[in-house]
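thread from #wetlab-drylab

HS: before we spend reagent money on co-crystallization trials with NDP, can we at least see a predicted complex? here's what I'd submit
DV: go for it
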Amino acid sequence: MRAWRTPPCLTSLRHSDLQKRQNSASANTNYFIKEALKELEYPQKLQRLLLTPQREVLVELVITKDNGEIETFNAYRVQHDDSRGPYKGGLRYHPKVDLDDVRSLASLMTWKTAVMDIPFGGAKGGISVDPKLLSERELEKLTRKLVQAIKDTIGPQVDIPAPDVGSNASVMAWFFDEYSKFSGFSPGVVTGKPVHLHGSYGREAATGRGTVFATREMLKATGAGSITDKKFVIQGFGNVGSWAAEIFEEHGGKVIAVSDAFGAVYNENGLDIKALRRHIADGDLLSAFSEGEAIDKDTILSIPCDVLVPAAIEGVINADTAGQVDAKYVVEAANGPTTPEGDKILRERGIVVLPDIYTNGGGVTVSFFEWVQNLQNFRWEEEEVNKRLDLKMTEAFAQIWEISRQKKLPLRTAAFVKALQSVTRAHLHRGFD
Ligand SMILES: NC(=O)C1=CN([C@@H]2O[C@H](COP(=O)(O)OP(=O)(O)OC[C@H]3O[C@@H](n4cnc5c(N)ncnc54)[C@H](OP(=O)(O)O)[C@@H]3O)[C@@H](O)[C@H]2O)C=CC1
Ligand SMILES: O=C(O)CCC(=O)C(=O)O
């Protein structure tokens, strides 16, 4: 096993020190990995290596708020596996972020980069904060404090953060700027930056666009035809959900309902997504969109449709809700939206699930393209980015589909089998001494 250096400024937690929770996010992720490990029959010690993170970092961040008071926040960075390349994964700013969530999300990144066949490992970070309660200045301070606290564990060849729930291109710009103060000009330390500040064309829309390419491939392979005239319901209308909605619409799909944390809106003939996005950009409530009917956001999963797209938070399709899903397909644009219990119910009901570690892999794929452009100090046109993304999504689907057919496995297990084989091969080639 390689030795991991932990800088003295950080509190490094060992797995044995950490509290274990039943039905936690990481237990759910490990359940799905173990399902695939049963197919592969790897030895126990190798399984442990694959299941547990390589390093977990917990830091305390203190800022002075605009009103002069000080406030303290917990922040995390979990580095799960770097056998295939530098650790890679987003930063989540959300009040419910805890170490277990981040551990689960970091593991998903390892399998996602392997499924997409891009030369990165897996990591994730987060701050327990509600960014909506901070001013922009406070958010900037908090981000800079995070960089100061973890700068020795990250870097363009070590660990490369990116946006996730609650963070965005501005946060990435502050991150890049702060890191560059310590290490010199380093645009490759973070991806998802603004396009005019070493970001890539196409990264902002990439996760949503990749979700649409993934759905297109799945519909084709299962004999359901094309996206045109299919009905879509999307939970979550942030970066991923809103871009997916717009691009489904561009492909002729009808997005009949979408929701956010506060409400939902429905139109059986299809919502005008560009108009809805303008409505929200003007600061209006999603549910107040006049070209749709406001509905209870908790009914979103049970609206009849062809494709249900969870694009918000974890664990929403579970033992209580999976029975109410009225879709032929569930396309997991969010990370971890389905619990093992929910997944079992969907399988029993014959609902096809396109798993997160493939479906939302478009984001990290274009992050890889951004990183490559940063290392080369060169910019690709948007058309080129989208074309390459399409190719990666199409190739990865073909491989998962083939494993699923050959081994008679659900698409989720097939995706994990592909990823586990790839990561294991890297570990064995690199060796452990
Ligand atoms: N951004 C990226 O590139 C990638 C993101 N993902 C995953 O996609 C998912 C969404 O991320 P992203 O779009 O970036 O995040 P955003 O913060 O941009 O958007 C999250 C959306 O989810 C909504 N939401 C939050 N809680 C609920 C709820 N209980 N019910 C319904 N909607 C809710 C939010 O509503 P409100 O605005 O009202 O708070 C918002 O519309 C996450 O699982 C993330 O990990 C995966 C790969 C890459
Ligand atoms: O773009 C990236 O590097 C990672 C995005 C992310 O956090 C994810 O795919 O869940």
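DV: Confidence is low (pLDDT under 50) at residues 1-21.
HS: ok that's useful, forwarding to the group
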